[in-house]
Amino acid sequence: MASNEKSRSAAQIVAAEWSDILSYGTDLINPAVPRAAYQHPSLRELWPMVSHGVLYLSRCTQYPWSRDVGTAFPQSAGGYRVRRESDKTLIGVAATVEEAYELIAANLPDNCGPAVVGTADDL
Question: Would you say the C-alpha torsion 96, 101, 102, 103 has a positive or negative sign?
Answer without folding.
Answer: positive
